[in-house]
UniProtKB/TrEMBL annotation:
This is Hydrolase haloacid dehalogenase family protein. SUPFAM superfamilies: HAD-like. InterPro entries: HAD-like_hydrolase_sf, HAD-like_sf, HAD-SF_hydro_IA, HAD_2, HAD_sf, PGP-like_dom2. The lineage of its organism: Eukaryota, Metamonada, Diplomonadida, Hexamitidae, Giardiinae. Gene3D superfamilies: HAD superfamily/HAD-like, Putative phosphatase, domain 2. Keywords: Hydrolase. GO terms for biological process: DNA repair. It comes from Giardia intestinalis. GO terms for molecular function: phosphoglycolate phosphatase activity.
C-alpha cells in the first residue's frame, strides 16, 4: 500500500526522499524500494483507460441523506434512531447489511420491508447530496483525456438516477460522461461481488491492467481485488482508515486523487 500525499512525488524527484542518494540501511533500502514502486504505480495509473468509481463517500458526500433515510425507516418500524457516527459504520455492504447492523435480530422478511421503505426515503433525500470539492474537476479532466468513467455502487439502482441528477444539477452533461452506472438491483450481487465491475470491463473491451477502481471502504478494496483491478482508497470517505490502507494506493485528498490520475495537483480538493 502506497500513501500518496501532495508532496510525495515532488520530494522524490528532487532527491529529498529517504534513500534517494543511495540506501545505507535495510530500512533505507525498503523505503527506497517503496518510493520507486510507488512512483512506478503512479505513472501507470496516469495512463489507465477506465476509472470505475464507488459513489457514496467517494464521489459524493451522502452521509446526511443516508442518515435521514435510515432513521426515518427506524422510526417507521418503531425502532430507535442512530447517530450519524454509528450510521457511517453501517454503510458499504448494501441495504441488507446496513439494516442488519442498524436493527440486529430482526427477521429477513422485516429487513426486506425496511429496505423497500428505505429506498423511497433515500431517493427523496438524494436531492441534498453534493459532490466532494475537487471531484467535478477530476471528472472533467478524465473526460477531456478520453478516459472512460463508470460507477459501481451498492446504492439501490432505483435511487441512482435521481441521485446523479442531483449531483450533476449544475452540469447535467456530466451524467453522459459515464459509460456505465450500476446500482444494486439484486441483493445477491452486492459488492464485493465483482459481477458488475467485470461487466463494465467486458462491455468496454478493457482488460483489468488498463483500469482502476476508486473507493472508500473495505468492500471497494475487496471488489477491486475480486475483479483483478488495482484500487485507490479515498481517505476522505466513510470507511475506516485501517481498511482503506489495504488498497494499493491511498489518496488523502481529492487533490491527491486528481494528481494520481491526471498528474496535476490543481483544484482546492478537500
Amino acid at each position: 500500500m502506497l500513501v500518496v500525499k501532495s508532496t510525495s512525488v515532488e520530494n522524490i524527484s528532487n532527491g529529498s526522499a529517504v534513500g534517494v542518494q543511495g540506501p545505507r540501511t535495510f530500512i533505507d533500502s525498503w523505503n527506497f524500494l517503496g518510493n520507486f514502486l510507488g512512483c512506478k504505480m503512479e505513472a501507470e495509473l496516469k495512463h489507465v483507460r477506465l476509472v470505475i468509481f464507488d459513489l457514496d463517500g467517494t464521489l459524493s458526500d451522502t452521509l446526511e441523506s443516508i442518515g435521514k433515510a435510515v432513521n426515518d425507516t427506524m422510526a417507521h418500524y418503531g425502532m430507535n434512531s442512530h447517530p450519524l457516527d454509528a450510521i457511517r459504520t453501517f454503510i458499504g455492504g448494501g441495504m441488507m447489511v446496513l439494516f442488519k447492523r442498524a436493527a440486529p435480530g430482526v427477521s429477513e422478511e422485516m429487513l426486506r420491508d425496511m429496505c423497500k421503505f428505505y429506498q423511497n426515503k433515500v431517493e427523496l433525500y438524494a436531492r441534498e447530496d453534493r459532490l466532494y470539492d475537487g471531484i467535478e474537476e477530476l471528472l472533467a479532466g478524465l473526460h477531456e483525456r478520453n478516459t472512460k468513467l463508470a460507477i459501481v455502487s451498492n446504492k439501490p439502482q432505483v435511487s441512482m438516477e435521481s441521485c446523479l441528477r442531483s449531483l450533476f444539477r449544475n452540469r447535467p452533461e456530466m451524467r453522459e460522461w459515464f459509460c456505465a452506472v450500476y446500482g444494486l438491483s439484486d441483493l445477491s450481487l452486492a459488492k464485493p461481488n465483482p459481477t458488475f465491475t467485470r461487466r463494465v470491463l467486458e462491455d468496454e473491451g478493457i482488460c483489468p491492467e488498463d483500469a482502476v477502481y476508486v473507493g472508500d471502504s473495505i468492500v471497494d478494496v475487496q471488489t477491486a481485488q475480486a475483479a483483478g483491478l488495482r484500487c485507490i482508497g479515498c481517505a476522505w470517505g466513510l470507511g475506516e482508515r485501517a481498511d482503506i490502507e489495504k488498497a494499493d494506493v491511498v489518496a488523502e485528498t481529492t487533490s491527491d486523487l486528481l494528481r494520481i490520475l491526471l498528474g496535476d495537483a490543481g483544484g482546492p480538493g478537500l
